[in-house]
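Record format v2
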Amino acid sequence: MNENIIETHELTKEYGHGENLTRALRGVDLEIPRGSFTCIVGPSGHGKSTLMHLIGGLDRPSSGRVLIDGQDVSNMGEKELAILRSGKIGFVFQFFNLLQNLTALENIEIALMLAGMPEAQQKERACELLALVGLSEKADAKPGQLSGGQQQRVAIARALANDPPILLMDEPTGNLDSVAEDEVLNVLESLNQRGKTIILVTHSSEISARAGNLVRVRDGRIETARTLPHR
Ligand SMILES: Nc1ncnc2c1ncn2[C@@H]1O[C@H](COP(=O)(O)OP(=O)(O)OP(=O)(O)O)[C@@H](O)[C@H]1O
Ligand SMILES: [Mg+2]
């Protein structure tokens, strides 16, 4: 098994052309170790979300290659890529994107249904996932009745529907205060201890200080990457 769960080679991404050309990524070689807790940091507009979308297979590079769990996605068709993505990656974004009319449990059940799980198993698995993020007692609450940190934990549980090895997150605590941020961080650390590779973009120095692997993006390039011994 490849020790890097994500690799990029000479990755570039350009938006627009002519006078409107933006070179969002200018040649990124990145290795993200399997099982790591990786934070991507850097100033606003310097290419973090762009990098995130490319390593998650949500968007295509202008040039260069992305390998997700050893598989080169460069020449994959849309359908093949979608299958790879749903098996390998759970996505969590800044805005929780929960369905407001459904309970916490139902929000997760929907994801399990979309992942193709037989109906008879959905409820039990959804309960397990809620327990994993410490929210069993909130199963019947709707998002409006949950705090920001709790809503984000439901979103994390939902992202785990397919039991993907990678959780990819773009500023998952961007809308949270420090108490809620801590709640979410504790859940992410426990998932990391259970073997999930955690990759997140963050502006929070509290989070990046706790990351084992720190990737600093500046001006579309990787400025520095530091890997600490595995915890
Ligand atoms: N869809 C798009 N079309 C055109 N330009 C884009 C698009 N998405 C991003 N850009 C540009 O690419 C550059 C990098 O943007 P990106 O969203 O990756 O930055 P970021 O590091 O995530 O910033 P932030 O911290 O503010 O979220 C910026 O100059 C941005 O304006
Ligand atoms: Mg961004």
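The helical segments are 48-55, 78-88, 104-114, 119-132, 148-159, 178-193, 205-210.
The mean pLDDT is 93.
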